[in-house]
Design a protein that fits this description.
4-stranded antiparallel beta sheet; about 55% helix; about 280 residues; alpha+beta; 7 strands; 3-stranded antiparallel beta sheet
């Protein structure tokens, strides 16, 4: 009986020690949970404050002086740009020449939508288009001979001067710096190319970007000088690149490198459309 009693005492002491350890562990766990509860309460209050701030920000953005006001200002700007571009269309109208003395307004082109998907047939023939009643004949710019009509050459140079002026005005109204700036002079206009004249060497690449050794502007005439046609043809190519830049800016693809007047008309038509206000 004494041995059993001693064994019971030892068992009770062991159980009592285990209970004490469990009680201490429970107390520590309670303290830890208390700290976490406090942290959650602090985080909840911070979240509540942030939610209130977010609601206030949403109310301020949706108010008269918020995002709605910004959209209204942007729409007014686009409407003003549309009006200015419409004046360019009146100043330099691009039309289809249907006959010797008959012209009709070119309303739209079966070109591309704003998503860049072609929606129709091929663009109108460049030779059938006129700007302010003048044809833009590209043949003299590719092949000049003694029998070339000098009047046609002069008319094409004048038409290119009109296009260059229109492109310059559109770029200023849209606030898009042209990649190839134009120096206006009527039928004696020029276009600048800032491309490097030679391939840069490894030592040139180490120079600062402010160095303009290889970025000197080269002027190309938008008219024929004597029998030289290469420079004038390249100038027309650069002018069409400026038109392509402006078309891409408003989300429209170019009609091609040989459609200067068609690209100009597509540019002004797209800007005057209702889609331009929603962009």
């Amino acid at each position: 009986m004494r041995q059993r009693l001693e064994a019971r005492k030892l068992a009770m002491e062991s159980i009592s020690l285990s209970s004490k350890v469990s009680a201490e562990d429970a107390k520590k766990e309670e303290e830890r949970l208390g700290v976490e509860v406090k942290s959650l309460l602090v985080a909840g209050s911070s979240l509540s404050v942030a939610s209130k701030q977010l609601q206030e920000s949403k109310r301020s953005l949706s108010g008269e002086r918020g995002y709605g006001r910004l959209r209204n200002l942007q729409k007014k700007l686009r409407m003003r740009q549309q009006y200015m571009i419409s004046q360019i269309s009146l100043l330099y109208p691009v039309k289809i020449s249907a006959g010797p003395s008959e012209e009709q307004e070119l309303e739209s082109f079966p070109s591309t939508s704003k998503s860049g998907i072609y929606t129709g047939s091929k663009p109108t023939n460049e030779g059938s288009l006129t700007v302010l009643g003048l044809h833009l004949t590209m043949l003299p710019f590719t092949k000049m001979s003694f029998f070339t009509d000098k009047k046609e050459v002069q008319k094409s140079a004048t038409a290119l001067g009109y296009v260059a002026h229109a492109v310059s005005l559109v770029s200023s109204y849209l606030e898009v710096p042209l990649r190839y700036p134009v120096r206006l002079g009527g039928s004696r206009s020029f276009i600048n190319d800032y491309a490097p004249s030679v391939e840069p060497t490894s030592s040139d690449l180490l120079l600062s970007s402010s160095s303009n050794v290889n970025t000197k502007a080269v002027e190309f005439p938008l008219f024929l000088e004597g029998q030289e046609t290469t420079r004038a043809a390249y100038a027309v190519f650069l002018l069409n690149k400026d038109l392509e830049q402006l078309l891409n800016f408003i989300g429209v693809k170019s009609l091609g490198p040989r459609h200067v007047l068609a690209n100009l008309k597509e540019l002004t038509r797209t800007i005057q459309s209702a889609e331009f206000l929603e962009t």
